[in-house]
Amino acid sequence: MMLKLFMLGLKRPVAVTLFMVMATLFAAAGIPKLEIDTGLDSLIPASDPNRLIYQQVMGEFGSDNKTIIYIRDNNLWTPEKLSIIEGLHHDIERIDNVTSVDSLFNLHTIHGEDGKIESIPVLSEAPTTVEEALAAKARALANPLYIGNYFSDSGNVLAMIVAVVDKEEDSDFSRRIYQQMETLISEKRGNFDKLIQVGPPRINAELKRRLFDDFRLLGPLSAFILFASILFFMRSGISAVIPIVTSFLSIIWTFGMLGWTGVPINILSAMLPSLIIVIGSTEDTHMMAAYFRGLESNVENSREKAIYYMAKHISLPLVLTVLTTALGFSSNILSGIGLIQHFAFAATFAMLANGIITILVVPLLLSVYGPEKNTSAVDDTESTRLPDIILRVFRYYQDNHPVSVLIFTTVMCGFFIYHASKLYVTNDPLSYIPSDSALIKDTKLIHDDLAGIKIFFIRLDSNKQNAFQRPENINKLVEIQRFMDKQGVFDQSISLADHLAFANREFRGEYAARVLPATRQLVAQYLMFFHRSDLDSYVSHDYSRANIVVRHNINDSHTLNAYIDELQEVVKDIAGAGFKVNIVSKNLMVNDAAESLMVAQIKALALLLALIFIIMSVMFTSFRGGAIALVPAVIPIAMMFGVMGYLNIPLNPGTAMVAVIGIGIAVDGTVHLLARYNELCRHTSDYIGAVNTAVKEEATPLIISGIALSFGFGILLLSNFTVIAQFGALAAITMLFSIYANLLITPIIMTRVRLIGLHQIIGMTIDKKVLEESPLFKNMTNYQRRKAVLISELSEFEEGDLLVEQGTIGRDMYLILSGEAEVIRHDGCESRTLATLLPGTIFGEIGYIRETERTADVKALTKISALRFDYERMQKDLKFFPNIVAKLNFNISYILGERLADMVSQSKGD
Amino acid sequence: MRQISEMILRAHQYFTVLIILFSSSLGAQEYPDENFDEATGLEIMQEVHQRHQQFAFIYEEQSMVMIDRNGDRDTRRVKRYSRVEDDGTVKFLLLFESPDEIKGVALLASRDASGKTKKYIYLPAFGEQLIESMSSGLDGKFLGTDFSIESITGEVLDDYIYVRRADIKINETGCFVIDVYRREEGFSENMLATGKQAIRRHIIPKNNFYITKTEYFDKQGRVYKKQTHHDLRPVDGRMWRADMILMEDSKEQHSSLIKIDRRVFSRDYVSADIFTAAWLFKNHPFVSTPDIDDKEVHSEDEDTEGILNQQSNSSVNLEAGFAQ
Fold first, then answer.
1. Which of A652, A755, A869, B317 has the most crowded Cβ, counting Cβ within 10 A?
2. Which domains does chain B possess?
3. Phi, psi (5° rounding) for residue A802?
4. What is the pLDDT of residues A447-481, one digit of tens each?
5. What value does the mean pLDDT take over residues A610-632?
6. Angle between helices A303-330 and A2-11 (to 10 degrees)
7. How far apart, in Å, are the Cα atoms of A902 and each of A481, A905, A907, B141, B178?
């Protein structure tokens, strides 16, 4: 079945071409429907219970989605500059979907002096004189509620806060709003020392811009690097072109599918083309290597035979590796974070699509353009090539210091696991962007001069009307804010208590600046001097709920979550039993998702390892096989986590995927090695030799694909996103670790095991009747018979070949599967035929049991196919397949017993 | 009655647009006795003033409902006293009666014959002292409402320039449109032609000369606040009063509604001593002890619903004290 599928391109070129063209055109039609999602919602797990609370809090206390326009100038408070700012304020107000603009032109303040009080705007319109401007400055800086929010301490920085109604259904909304504001800002930028905007629209627009920049850079660059590295290592043009063709088609299929299904592309999708090109190419490389081996193995250099050889030898490992790679990506779907889920879905489809395209297109292309002689360097005996050098070094250590290698690896893993314990998680969107980018610098600038752009709310809910008109409850807000001051990590917090303390100061004078009103009545009466909109963010209309607005600039989820956890405990203590406490914001939910990222990572890894273990155990009909397949997959991942811990690289949506993807890819090499080794074992009892041959044959594609993958992933270092760059660097290192594990550790373990492939058992084409009737397989199930056959060595003999030679010492026993042979005994010059052996006949059983001279020749009368049971090999296999070998030994004893009985009765007859 | 008219005449140079008193109904009774086709903005405003002149002694019980952007409502009950003295001084006292925690809070204002206005605020919980309010801007917000102090004490005609714009029709009723400009130093009529932005616009139906709607403009000419008058009724000949005034701030998505529950035109209700600090301190003394009782707070929403559902004819009997 699999073979037929692989041969489709060769056998049905027109149909395959037509299918590919149609499918690709259909997919391409979906590309214009692609949606782009760079919003923050996709970073929050859909199941996050805080979503509902967040929506409630936002609904009651206002949105946390605000843009800050930062204006700095040493001569800011002049009629000219303030007039420009006023113009900007009004211009921005006119932008569609801008719901409010807060600046000094609509802020109100309370001013008390000499027993007089006034509630006035900071500045209702641009002043006409310097004196008016300076008076406005004095009013602005006198209000502690505005310092850090709207004005810097010195007054040379002021902020305009723009709230925009979010149009989540319009994927281009944020970028458009950002552009509209930026156009207005840039017109006035020359008038100030610094004029910038930072907020969700800019972050969103920046993420989108970087996404497209990545698309433009990474895909083509990956293709080029892949082409160059394959050309360099394999020295075959067609080997370099084919992966580009299959990757290109896979990219169209993938993005077309995303367009048709409505799954949006996000910042992680920036690496999709590179991943498709890089990972997809590994299969092409293995196929090309097999094709070239096929050319070597057929004397007439027939493309068709080479393709058949390729299909025969590569079909199972290729399907398995496609499956494991896709599994690696798909396990990320467990993450619960939309960003990762969408990417995982896209990447899984991409890997499967690439597998299908490779299976169909590579044979098709090779049938037309495939070279007719091995011009590649795959089997080049030149020993100065990099793969050979690596292999020679590895071989030396395998042969001479296998135990030391294992101990060294174990120690290394221990070292890395120790460092992996320092691993921390982060999910902050600003951490996706390099710290030297203008956006991050601007964010820091605002943090330095005002307060961080990130906001969260602490809501206390008493469930009693007017609870927050009571001084004892308002005092709880003060205590919470004092605790945050002690924490020393948040830039600013403002609550109802601050408003009341400010009012108290203005009514009573400076000495009352930090004192709260003593009575509920005075609280209520002070509050009359604030307009409801001034208090909207801090207290509910019925005073049953209060809200502390906190601004900060912490970009690391790990740190933020630790402080928030601590704060949560303290706030609960301070609030007491009568209050419900929530600490929420979109930013916090995004950061909190980092924890679920860690949990999802563990789940995904466990699931993937379990699946690989099960698949490999089934495929190699042995749990040992499953365990062996895991070893070279786990070692690189342990090392990768260690590197992350050592280099302080956080687990984030990018790096969280390296492990599962790395396992998916690393296990590919193991599958190829095990499959080849298993195949070789069918024809030799020299298992070490089989390991060496398998490693030698698979090393080149394995090293080439490993290095190409490293280069390919390394390209991602050029990404505009830190998370992708970190992913690329770690994935590149993991690929190198996987070469080490696959070529050094796997062979050492492989020499200690013997595996039988399930596909071999199922696909065996031996006359069933022969096996059923053979006494060697008496009382065995069909499955056991087939497995027993596969434990033995399959030997082919031409007519006239001697299977056994009289006088020689041999410990082989044969079972004829097809063909005929005759037993000839030589006595001096006389020879006589003792018997003709037909399919199902066993011979050589005496030598198998006891080392003795062969008493006759066995010569092939026709072409013969026979199973050879070697004593030494069977003893070795006893520990690998004890049940089967024990049954075989029992049956051999039975056969010998029968022979003995025949001889006794024969002698009695004589 | 004669004495009252004289007092009104002494204050004639001012026209106080008593926003919280006026209201209109476009379908109201008509008095088409003058031709104002060629009248200027000022002349129309003077006619408005003449018809709906300030009465000398007014006592009102009002409910103030403040509605925030979420539709949540806060209700306050207020007593309003106004009195025109013999020397032309106009005095106002706005006294909050509920909710309990703001009971006794008061705004005490007076404007002398020269137009000089003084405003004091009394907070019983703060102490027995009047705090002078320095707020003067018309756009200010008074004690958490959407009204400014000036919109309560009144608009002085001499302080503004009134420009008549093209008449409009609303529900088949012809209306004057008057743009109001602040009379600033250096102001000239030419500035109107150069696109100077009016600060507000009055809409006045021709049939009753009541300001039914006032739109407030920002510097960009956008309406940010709108005041409308409802439940209008004639109270004396051509004099009309409104029982409900709504101020909507579209920028802040907040609105304030004043409902007149009771109105009495009577000297007895507004004695002179009411407009003194002593009266306030005596009737609403300093609350010095922290309130520690945990009594259930009466739901203001219930009050609000009641106010909003009241029929407009509920005030008919309340005007029994009107001095004819």
1. A869
2. 2-292 (2.50.20.10)
3. -90, 125
4. 999 888 888 999 999 988 889 999 999 999 999 99
5. 78
6. 120
7. 101, 5, 8, 121, 132
Q: Two tokens at A814? A: 């044969």
Q: How many residues does chain A have?
A: 910
Closest CA to A664 of A683, A688, A636: A636
- The residue whose two tokens read 């984030």 is A652
Phi, psi of A891 (to 5 degrees): -65, -35
User: In angstroms, what separates the C-alpha of A549 from chain B's closest C-alpha?
Assistant: 19
Interchain contact, B126 vs A522, CB within 8 Å: yes
Q: Do A520 and B140 touch (CB under 8 A)?
A: no
CA distance A26 to chain B (A): 49
How many cross-chain Cβ pairs, A to B, lie less than 8 Å apart? 117
Instruction: Report the alpha-carbon distance of residue B289 to residue A442 in Å, rounded.
Output: 50
Nearest CB partner across the interface for A507, out of B66, B73, B126: B126
Reported as type and span, the H/E element at residue A329 is helix A303-330
Q: Which two tokens stand for residue A215?
A: 């698309």
The whole-angstrom distance between A187's CA and the closest CA on chain B is 19
User: If you count them, how many residues does chain B have?
Assistant: 324
Amino acid at B57: F
pLDDT, tens digit, 9 for 90 and up, residues B81-114: 999 888 888 898 999 998 888 999 999 988 887 7
B130-133 and A116-121 beta bridge pairing: parallel
Per-residue pLDDT at B123: 92
Point out which residues pair with B81 in neighbouring strands: B59, B93
In the structure encoding, which two tokens stand for residue B189, read together? 């009529």
**B188 secondary structure, DSSP code:** -
Q: Span A66-198: which CATH code?
A: 3.30.310
Residue range A764-879 in CATH 1.10.10.10: no
A446/B134 Cα distance (integer angstroms): 35
- What distance in Å separates residue A137's CA from the closest CA in chain B? 18
User: Cα–Cα distance between A155 and A146 in angstroms, integer?
Assistant: 11
Inform me whether the C-beta atom of residue B299 falls under 8 Å from chain A C-beta atoms: yes
A375 with A235: CB under 8 angstroms? yes
Within 10 Å of residue B105's Cβ, how many Cβ atoms? 25
| Token pair in block for residue B314 | 């509920």
Contact B66 A542 (CB under 8 A): no
Find, among A184, A250, A243, A447, the residue nearest to A365 by Cα: A243
- Closest CA relative to residue A604, chosen from A332, A408, A809: A332
Q: Which residues on chain A are in Cβ contact (under 8 Å) with B69?
A: 533, 536
| A525 → closest Cβ in B125, B218, B252 | B125
- Contact assessment for residue A271 and residue A712, using Cβ atoms and an 8 Å cutoff: no
Choose the mutation target among A541, A544, A545 for the interface with B, i.e. most B CBs under 10 Å.
Answer: A541
Q: How far apart are CA A332 and CA A605, in angstroms?
A: 9
ipTM over 0.90: no
Domain map of chain A by residue range?
2-33+206-421+620-750, 66-198, 445-591, 764-879
